[in-house]
Each structure stands twice: as C-alpha cells, then as structure tokens.
# Entry
Amino acid sequence: MEFLCQLSIISLLFGAMVFCQHEGYDFEDEYDQEPDDEYSTILHFNPSVEYVVPHFPTPTKCAQECFCPPTFPLSMYCDHRKLKMIPNIPFHIQQLYLQHNDIEAVTAQSFINATTLREINLSHNKIKSHLIDHGVFAKLSNLVQLHLEHNKLDEFPFPLPTTLERLFLSFNEISRFHKNALRGLVNVTMLDLCNNYLDESLLIGRYFSNMKNLMQINLCNNRLQTMPPDLPFSLMYLSLENNSISYIPENYFNRLPKITALRLSHNNLQEVPYNIFNLSNLVELNLGHNKLKQAFYIPRSLQHLYIEDNDIESVNITLMCPYIDPKNVNHLTYIRVDQNKLTAPISTYAFFCFPHIRIIYYGEQKGTISQSTQLRTPVFHRFLTPEEYDEVEDGHEREDSHERERDDYFHPYFY
# Structure
C-alpha cells in the first residue's frame, strides 16, 4: 500500500512538471513572430528542463605516440613528433596524420589492423621508394586520399588501391614509373606530380586515358619538353608551369573538351596554333613568361587571360575576336600584358568584342634598349568602385612579390 502511495505521488509530480513546461512555452513566438530575415532561426530553450547530451560509445584505442581527440574519435594525430617509424594503427581509425616527422619506411606491420583507413597524410617525411613494403597501400580497400608530397620517392608508388580518389606526390624525386602504375586508378580525380624529375618519355604508355574520372593533374616544375600524352577526356584542370615545352600540337585539345583552366606559364612557347584554345569551357588561360609574339583566338567562355612577360609588340584584337555576336558575347574580364613590348594601349575595339572587360594590366613594358617603359595608363579599370580599385592595386603588389609562388601549380582543391 505504501508503495502505491509513493507511486501516486511521483505520477502527480511528473504531471505537474509537464503541465508547467507546457504553460511556460510560448507557442505564439514560434509560429506568429516574423523572422529578421529568411535565414534566421528562433531557438527556444526552457530553463526548467535539464538538457542532457546523449552518450554514444566511441572507440578509445590510440597509439601511445599519438593523440586521438574525443571529439574526433576516428582520427589519429601523430604529426610533428619526430617519429622515425609508423606506430601500429587501431582498426577503427579512418584519418591518419603523420606529416612532419622523420619516417623513412612504410611497413605492412603498421597497417595490419587498419582496415577502415580513408585518409593518410605522410607528407614532409623522408620516405624512400625502396623502403615501402610492396602492396602496403593496395591492401587498404577504403583509402580515398593519400599524401606523400615532400618525401624522397624516386618511383611512382605501385600498386595503389582502386578506391583512391586524391593522390599527392609533389616535391619528390620521381623519375621512374612502373608500366602499370596508373592502370587501376580509375577513381582518381586529382593527381599532383609537381616538382619531380618527370620527362615525356616516362609518361608515354602510362594509361592516363584509363583514369576516367581524372579532373585535375598537376605536372608543373618537371622536365617536360612536349605536352603530356594520352590525357583522359574527363580532364578539367591542367597545370604545366615551369617546364620546357616549346610547342602545342594543333589537335592536342580535341580529346580534352572539358578543360576549364590551363596553365602553361614559364615554358618556351614561341607561338601557338591560332585556334588551339577554341574550347567551349575554358575560363582561365595562363601563358605568361614565354616567348610569344602575337595574339591568338580567344574562346567566348574565357574570363582571365595572362600573357605577361612575352615578346608581344601589339595586341591584335581582330585576331583575338574575329567577329561580334550580340547573342553570344565574349566573357573576358581580365587581361594581364605587362612585361611585353607594347608601346600603346590596346585598341578600344576590344571593348566591343569583350564587353565584360574590367581590367587590363599594362604595368611596365620591356624597352628596346634594355630599359623598361611605362604606358601612360599602367592599369585600365572599367566600372570599378573605389573599393574594388584599391583591392586590385593591392592584388598586383602581392602578385609581383609572390609571382613564382602563385604560378607554381593549382591549389590541390581547385575544383
């Protein structure tokens, strides 16, 4: 009987608490009050209710050399710890960060339990190709992203898992390619090979065309003398800065209609086929720091054109824009032509052909007797607010001081 009385009292107290909460909640505030803007959200917290964050069991195992934060229980941070070996990786870890250490070898023993790894960052170490156990990465059937940049690799790592989507190999010493190194990489969307020792002979017959999902490839700062062969139809971003490329075959881009950004600065181009860049998706074209002498056809999609530091004496707008189509106008907004041999500004006809032009950057021009000359208008601005003008000026100052850094290669996540 006493138990029933206690139960009745508890029920009455619970009912009263629920009633008080109901009375204390202002439903009109939620449904009748107008929000300040379309993105604002009104949150109501009742002070009489004790809010408890639900507890979910999470894995707690972590290598003693590393740190596994409770808020990111699937990540293991082992970076900047002067490690010389890769610690054993618990089975639940998905993101492994080992950058900035002194690791030379990648052994299978470290990864024996790492069946769920999706991302590995081994950049900025001392890893050598012959000290990577054969197939150690290929066994990681969930791996999506692999960072091996800034190491001492002399060979493209092989084999790799077919699940891989992003592969970073820049700043190594790669000068060897297994003939089947790329054959299984059908899911790779981004491949960074900048700052290695690659020449065109290493790329021939390496099955780039089988990489059906490749969107971006960075080959800057290598030893290429010709355009890379056999690139896939899917490619959108191509980085070839700082090589020794001297010509582009006339039909080279026939198989690359999706190209959106093309960077060929710091090469040895003296001329390009007139219609070579007639690509319907091209938005950015960088041909700065070459030896070009005349202009070429500009596709209607192009927005940013960099042709600084060439040998151009006059910009022939008729060549760049042979006719005007009011229904399909050119989208060019920015041209950089400093460090050429111009003696006069670009013809005003450019503003009929390219109605969206806002900036033409003339800067300094090369003089005829080893002297630089300055056009009367170093920067032409059209329809710019004072704030935009100041922003552009600041941008050019930064561009001059960090020019080579900007030209190095696409940001790895450009797309």
Observations:
- The chain has seven helices and 16 strands.
- The CA atoms of residues 155 and 176 lie 5 Å apart.
- Confidence is low (pLDDT under 50) at residues 16-57, 404-415.
- Helices lie at 2-24, 27-31, 200-203, 317-320, 350-353, 386-401, 403-407.
